[in-house]
Amino acid sequence: SLKILEIMAVIRLDKTTDQIEHVLFSSLMDGNGSVPASRAASDPLASNAWEEVSPDATLLAPVECNSLWMQFKADIKYIMSQATSAQDTLRKAKRALKIVVGVVVVVGAGVVAAVGAPTAMTIASRPEVAALMEKVGPELVAVMKDIGPEVLAMLKDAGPEVTGVVRSLGPQIVTAVIAMMTKWMAGPHQQ
């Protein structure tokens, strides 16, 4: 934005050089975009003319460039805070979703271990469960593609107790999931 302001400040038809870019960047990019009070007396943006530039070639005086930059910063502040807030909300939602998915995986593994793989498969083959899987299956696959590696990393870091349960149930979980997905993929929703 500051580069565009520099280009728009004066008409440059004869390839003459000027220091407008340097003046704007050194004056406006000090962190808060305003000239410190100690430099106010020698502020190059307090002038109505650019050094080395004819008044006829000036489109935006230094003082106007300063005013436009302050207006731009004020206008963009709200947009930036909204973007930052949206990113923060998304980050929190992903973190919560990872926790929920991790808990569901551990609880699912516990259920399979408690009732056994055959009973879990019987439950999974019920029409209402199959209908639910048909509705949420594609979304679940999409979510797992997005956050699956992060969930696995979270489960890995969850502690020895959870890791031990998952390890001991590993073969049963894999068998149950493969059987359930095979049955689900062979169901009527496949075309």
Structure write-up:
The chain is rod-shaped. Helix 3 packs across helix 5. It is 71% helix and 0% strand. The protein starts with a helix and ends in a 6-residue tail after the last helix. Residues 33-38 have low confidence and may be disordered. The protein has six helices and no strands. The longest helix has 54 residues, at 62-115. By secondary structure, it is mainly alpha-helical. Residues 1-94 form the Sey1/RHD3-like three-helix bundle domain. One of its GO terms (biological process) is endoplasmic reticulum membrane fusion. It comes from Salix viminalis. Keywords: Membrane, Transmembrane, Transmembrane helix. One of its GO terms (molecular function) is GTPase activity.
What's the topology here?
Elements: H1 2-9, H2 20-28, H3 62-115, H4 117-124, H5 127-156, H6 160-185
Helix pairs in contact: 1-2, 3-4, 3-5, 3-6, 4-6, 5-6
Quick structural overview:
This protein is about 70% helix and about 0% strand. The protein is an all-alpha fold. The radius of gyration is 31 Å and the shape is rod-shaped.
Q: What's the overall geometry? A: rod-shaped
What kind of sheet is the major sheet? none
Low-confidence blocks of residues: 33-38
Mean pLDDT level: 74
User: What is Rg?
Assistant: 31 Å
Strand content: under 5%
Span from first to last CA?
A: 52 Å
**How are helices and strands ordered from N to C?**
HHHHHH
Task: Return the structural class.
Answer: mainly alpha
Helix content range: over 70%
Please provide the count of β strands.
Answer: 0
The DSSP helix count reads 6
Keywords: Membrane, Transmembrane, Transmembrane helix
Pfam families: Sey1_3HB
GO molecular function: GTPase activity
Organism: Salix viminalis
